[in-house]
Amino acid sequence: MTRPLTFLRSLLGTAAVLLIASLVIFLLIDAAPGDPAEIMLGTSAQPDTLAALRAELGLDRPLMVRYLGWLAGVFTGDLGQSYTYGVAVRELIAERLTVTLPLTLMATVLAVVISLPLGVIAAARPGKPEDGLASLFSQIGIAVPNFWIGLLLILAFALKFKWFPPGGFPGWDAGFGPAFSALVLPSIALAIPQAAVLTRVTRAAVIEVANEDFVRTARAKGLSRNRALWRHTVPNSLLPVVTMLGLQIPFLISGAVLVENVFSLPGIGTLAYQALSQRDLIVVQNVVLLFAVIVLVVNAGTDALYARLDPRLRARK
């Protein structure tokens, strides 16, 4: 009975967090300056025309009525109609996610592929040139913003060598190759800062575990340094790495706002930026709520992965 109760408690807690998050999102966005009706019609619009548009958009209704109406729509899958694009918000977000989700996935995989070997090698050879190179990479990756990295990548690999397109997205209908090629440079720009952080975390975790008694015991029994490193040290160093990776995925999605604009990608980040600048409140509300849902899903996935990596957590359940 313990596991069902734990799952139910976790589910109720997640629902409560989402409810609070939705209310905070709605209140903050509603308090933002600017009148959507005035932005759509212009400052020269007549008062009666503005009033008619506000009524059509539902902006003349009380605050809590609008919030409850939006919340009911979220639960039924009706996210409303975009003021700017004139289409259903659900369709708009679904279309943009076909760009942002593959971009985020590519950046995540790339960050892990770069950081784990680099961090382990740096920890295995502290004070050596490999450690120095890893430290230099971490410092540069953390210090340089991802949009600036994106601009450098465009100058080098798009404009000079012409290996990749400088921007835009042809769509998956154009074929996997052209679509994948359009996401390579943006994914690198997103991945490098995250890989820099993960490299530092991996190095510190491996060094800490390498000093544990069970690793010294394995070495005393005749296990070689490399076998002890990969068999005992690295697997037991993954918990802090998984923690940091779980924290970084939401930052990757939010970082896509800048990177997608640099590369002119029609993703969810570009949609959020455009909707915010045009005061398309219904789009902004749903996009930010989607970000909150992604954060909660990633946290739940991180907890599940924790249980797989650490048997002690499974025993507690």
TrEMBL record:
Keywords annotated in UniProt: Cell membrane, Membrane, Transmembrane, Transmembrane helix, Transport
Record carries keyword Transmembrane: yes
GO molecular function: dipeptide transmembrane transporter activity
Domain called ABC transmembrane type-1: residue spans: 97-300
Membrane topology (UniProt): Multi-pass membrane protein
Segments traversing the membrane: 103-124, 136-159, 179-198, 237-263, 283-307
InterPro entries: BPD_transp_1_N, MetI-like, MetI-like_sf
Similarity annotation: Belongs to the binding-protein-dependent transport system permease family.
PANTHER family linked to this entry: DIPEPTIDE TRANSPORT SYSTEM PERMEASE PROTEIN DPPB-RELATED
Protein name per Swiss-Prot or TrEMBL: Peptide/nickel transport system permease protein
Taxonomic source organism: Paracoccus seriniphilus
